[in-house]
Design goal:
Strand order of the largest sheet: 31-40-37-36-35-34-33-32
Bound molecules: S-methyl-methionine, 2-amino-4-mercapto-butyric acid, zinc ion
Number of strands: 40
Helix content: 10-25%
Shape: elongated
């Protein structure tokens, strides 16, 4: 690893909001792009000041001077311009760090409140932490990479815009939800949406990378939303508490990764106590623990209050001691415990609310005191929620931190957003209704424009004979409503190009060309809106509101053989797992670095080929997401006869895989395949069937079968969407007309009738965006 890695933004573009490019969902209305980011609160370790982050705003109050504080930002540098996702005073209290969706990390010096450093991240930032010594700031981007910035003495004295950070560890494409240094600064802990907490040794020379993994804390069954260290008296390293979407709080010996105790808080609190309507129990959204572990406060999504736990460190028990109910309509979205005064500060709020303007976002602060060291003392002695005039800083602080809070007007909206919560369970993503439109048959449309594909390279031939025709077809699909363009690399292989006399370098350049052509089409399409000529098409599709992703196609080995064997998987016994890996390796590497948003493994006929892909993804350390798309000709198994269960479980096992499904399969099998696969994976489901005709590989022609007509195909789209498919398009013999009709059908599915449904859909769609696409952009 290089000692320093430039992550320079090339001016304003990178840091500017790029929601249109990032967002892979269909969005009918501009305001549907809004994402609910929770209000955050952090307190100085000596309770000198308190900060609330809401939207892009940092609101600060000096508790010592009883006055509000104005931050002094970089004079020429960028300020926060999008939702702040993490705000953190280090343990020393010397600095405050803030970071978020605008890809900026800002470090503020807490005696002068100057911004002393602005770091440009190249992805949105999900978590930030400051080391005990104040010498390092770590931040996590949404790709799952943790970066480190060193602060030296001079930093505290001057403003500096620094564009350098060093990647120190990674979570392999999983979004990091929380990041903290251990209290002794020996470790750095990072938790992710893939259920794990990684404990990494924080090395003596951390800017050279933190490679030594101390442990993984594995046991949560859903995303890890929060964690906190605690060190009871007499204990050397301490313990770690974590909360999760699986509705549990767990206690870990983080040195060994051993799970010591689990408290099923959601079950214990009981369904009557929270306001949710979902199946199962609600996620734990936040946890605050006093430094000695005697106070453990837990926030649960949609719970009007907090849960206090008691922990027996020696006998490894963790149980609910008390549920403290707050007044109606108060759902804390974020909390912080002051170790000094043992006051729990809570905030409720969100960065965008459907009924309120973007400026002056309201929040509601509550402060609780009267915690007991011995949980049995809670019997009859609840912690006390302070009245507004009893809160440190009083009404002055509240008016500063809460914004234009008008109880009667806004509390209900605020509560709705808070109740909707910060994290959604992973398994709800695809059921939430978010969806994107995949394009249709590229080769089919090339043929419609006169292309002759009777060639071993099939559509890939046009990468060197007429890339402009490919671009035109991509544009036709975008105009028709596609959100995802699949590149012309399905049958483009290094081996295939070499057999046509191209050199190795030229062959690799042709692979890259397939992605470039699709990117150029996207630019043209979106450039129309920049030039002000954006109009809604007759289908109501506006390029301004129409995000586009590029999926680099990788066809199976059978496609290269050009004998139709991608529809049987019958490659002969001499073709082993190693043969397939050797065949696919270099192409995968080249395409994964060509600028695509995702790799589309298409028309996978067999388990062995899926296995080859999975092994290559790991061995080649592929850094972009992928989808796995199988073919079936009976609606039960995949075409080779391998079981769907086996194939789906192979695909499901890999973090890179964000969606699993079927392509180039007859529409008549799609519904049953969706129903089967939804039981086998929590990942997104994709389907892009062909017309139902059969392919004759000798004649290289499609022949009618008793398939379902194009018209019928479209009439199934809503049903497939309802059954759980999130990404829907067409494969061979489908056309821009098919895609136009699919986009129309799916848009019709998005007509929320009630305002709360609207909010729900909005939140869910954005989470779908988070999990599938935007984080890798
Ligand atoms: C998806 S099939 C229709 C692609 C063409 C096939 N591999 C062939 O070369 O005949
Ligand atoms: N993506 C390819 C077909 C795969 S079967 C194409 O559309 O030409
Ligand atoms: Zn196809």
């Amino acid at each position: 690893m290089e000692e320093t890695t430039e992550i320079v933004s090339d001016g304003g573009d990178e840091a500017a909001p790029t929601a249109g490019v990032e967002n892979g969902m269909i969005e009918e209305e501009k305001n549907m792009d809004g994402e609910v980011a929770p209000a955050l609160i952090s307190i100085h370790p000596f309770e000198k000041s308190v900060v609330v982050a809401v939207g892009s705003e940092l609101r600060l109050f000096n508790l010592e001077g009883n006055c509000s504080v104005s931050l002094i930002d970089d004079p020429g540098g960028p300020s926060h311009s999008d939702a702040i996702r993490s705000v953190n005073f280090g343990a020393s209290g010397r600095f405050l760090a803030s970071a978020g969706d605008d890809k900026l990390v800002k470090i503020w010096e807490t005696s002068s409140w100057h911004c002393i450093r602005t770091v440009y991240a190249d992805k949105r930032v999900s978590a930030v932490a400051i080391s005990l010594s104040g010498r390092y700031v770590a931040f996590a981007d949404k790709f799952g990479v943790v970066w480190l910035v060193g602060l030296d003495e001079d930093d505290a004295k001057q403003t500096k815009v620094d564009k350098k950070a060093v990647p120190i560890l990674g979570h392999y494409c999983s979004i990091i939800t929380r990041l903290e240094f251990s209290p002794d600064e020996r470790f750095i802990a990072s938790a992710d949406r893939d259920f794990k907490i990684r404990i990494t040794v924080f090395p003596k020379q951390p800017l050279k990378g933190a490679h030594e993994i101390q442990s993984f804390c594995l046991g949560h069954k859903d995303f890890v939303s929060c964690f906190a260290f605690a060190c009871p008296p007499g204990c050397v390293h301490g313990f770690l508490f974590s909360g999760s979407g699986d509705s549990t709080v767990r206690l870990w010996d983080f040195i060994s990764g051993l799970l010591l105790a689990t408290c099923e808080v959601g079950t214990k609190v009981g369904s009557l106590q929270y306001n949710g309507t979902e199946d199962g129990y609600p996620p734990v959204t936040d946890i605050c623990v006093s430094s000695d572990g005697s106070i453990i406060a837990v926030a649960i999504q949609s719970l009007r209050g907090i849960v206090l736990l008691s922990c027996g460190f020696s006998d490894r028990t963790l149980s609910v001691a008390k549920v403290v109910t707050l007044e109606d309509n108060y759902f804390p979205t974020n909390m912080v415990l002051s170790s000094l005064t043992q006051r729990l500060w809570m905030v409720m709020g969100a960065s965008n609310l459907p009924t309120l303007s973007a400026t002056q976002l309201p929040t509601r602060i509550r402060v609780m005191s009267g915690f007991h060291k011995d949980p049995s003392d809670y019997n009859g002695h609840d912690p006390i929620t302070l009245e507004d005039n009893e809160v440190p800083g009083g009404k002055k602080l509240l008016s500063e931190l809460q914004g234009s809070f008008d109880v009667t007007m806004e509390e209900a909206a605020l509560a709705a957003a808070a109740a909707a919560g910060r994290w959604r369970e992973r398994r709800h993503h695809r059921e939430a209704g978010g969806c994107a439109v995949i394009d249709g048959g590229l080769a089919t449309e090339l043929e419609a424009h006169g292309a002759d594909l009777k060639d071993p390279l099939w559509s890939a031939k046009y990468l060197f004979t007429s890339p402009d025709l490919i671009k035109k077809v991509h544009l036709d699909y975008l105009e028709a409503g596609a959100n995802i363009l699949i590149t012309a690399s399905y049958q483009a292989t290094i081996q295939g190009f070499e057999s046509r006399g191209f050199s190795r370098e030229e062959s690799e350049a042709l692979l890259r060309r397939s992605v470039e052509v699709a990117c150029e089409a996207r630019e043209i399409f979106q450039g129309r809106s920049l030039r002000g000529s954006d109009r809604c098409s007759k289908d109501g599709i506006s390029s301004k509101q129409h995000p586009v992703l590029i999926a680099a196609s990788i066809g199976s080995y059978g496609a290269y053989l050009a004998d139709g064997s991608e529809y049987s998987g019958n490659y002969g016994l001499q073709v082993t797992l190693e043969t397939l890996k050797d065949f696919h390796r270099r192409r995968l590497q080249v395409l994964s670095e060509a600028g695509a948003d995702i790799i589309a493994f298409e028309t996978i006929p067999s388990k062995i080929e899926a296995q080859a892909y999975i092994e290559l993804l790991q061995e080649c350390n592929i850094k972009i997401p992928v989808w796995f798309s199988f073919t079936s000709n009976d609606g039960i198994n995949i075409v080779s006869g391998d079981s769907l269960t086996d194939c789906a479980s192979i695909a499901d096992s890999c973090d890179n895989v964000v969606a699993i499904g079927f392509n180039c399969t007859s529409p008549r099998y799609i519904h049953s395949l969706i129903l089967s696969i939804r039981k086998l994976t929590e990942k997104l489901i994709l389907i892009y069937p062909n017309s139902g005709e059969s392919y004759d590989p000798d004649k290289k022609e499609w022949v009618a079968s008793n398939g379902v007509s194009g018209e019928d195909f479209v009439s199934y789209v809503s049903k497939w969407h309802e059954a759980g498919a999130s990404l829907i398009g067409g494969c061979c013999r489908t056309t821009p007309n098919t895609i136009r009709a699919i986009a129309k059908a799916l848009r019709k599915d998005f007509h929320p009738s009630k305002p709360d449904q609207e909010l729900h859909n909005d939140i869910e769609r954005n989470i779908l965006k988070d999990s599938f696409l935007i984080d890798y952009a």
